[in-house]
Design brief:
It is a single chain. By secondary structure, this protein is α/β, with parallel strands linked by helices. It has a single domain, classed as Metallo-dependent phosphatases (Purple Acid Phosphatase, chain A, domain 2, 4-Layer Sandwich). The chain is built from four helices and eleven strands, in the order βαβαβαββαββββββ. A six-stranded mixed sheet has the order 3-2-1-9-10-11, with no helix packed on it. Strands 4-5-6-8-7 form a five-stranded mixed sheet, with helices on one face. It is globular, with a radius of gyration of 15 Å.
Length: about 190
């Protein structure tokens, strides 16, 4: 299968430059990036992640041409200035092949039922969200719930992870550890 378009889906980097460098080293080329929030600040409830250097991470992210953000609960107006990005909505939607996806950080949704209601409201099939720092890729009542986890502050003993969406004749959604090891995948 020839990959036509490769998308990195990442959330909760929380200012970790070393995690971003690991992603670049092991995940390889991507056509675009969707960052699901909590980009630079570690947050008052989190420890400092390894390699915490939000200024340098912002510089690396600014060098990327095709990156879209949704705003997380730790993203402040100053983060938008540093990232030189004046468009960081709380929620966005995209279409991949024939599938509509909703992108959000997710601090306001706490149950699968709330997630499914949101997808119904947007007439979408896929919810890509962050916030929990826990990777998830599963089908719930014919909808895809996809959380790439966190590359810098994973929780519940999960490894540091990111997501990939690859467009071929099908849509492949996968979660990878930042060292490049496949964690989970599905094809739509």
């Amino acid at each position: 299968m020839r990959i036509l378009h490769r998308i990195l889906v990442v959330s909760d980097t929380h200012g970790s430059l070393s995690s971003w460098e690991e992603i670049e080293k092991h995940i390889g080329f991507v056509d675009e990036i969707y960052h699901l929030g909590d980009v630079l600040y570690h947050g008052p409830r989190n420890p400092l992640p390894n390699g915490y250097n939000p200024a340098q991470l912002a510089k690396k992210l600014r060098e990327r041409k095709s990156i879209s953000y949704v705003r997380g609960n730790c993203d402040a107006d100053v983060d938008l200035l540093v990232l030189e990005n004046d468009d960081m909505p709380k929620i966005a939607s995209i279409t991949l092949n024939d599938f509509k996806a909703v992108l959000m950080h997710g601090e306001d949704i706490h149950t699968d039922e709330q997630m499914l209601q949101l997808l119904e409201r947007y007439n979408a099939t896929i919810l890509a969200y962050g916030h929990t720092h826990i990777p998830r890729l599963e089908v719930v009542r014919s909808k895809i719930l996809f959380n790439p986890g966190s590359p810098s502050l994973p929780k519940m003993n999960h490894p540091p992870t990111v997501g990939l969406m690859e467009l071929t004749e099908k849509l492949r959604i996968a979660i990878y550890e930042i060292n490049g090891t496949l964690h989970k995948e599905m094809f739509l």
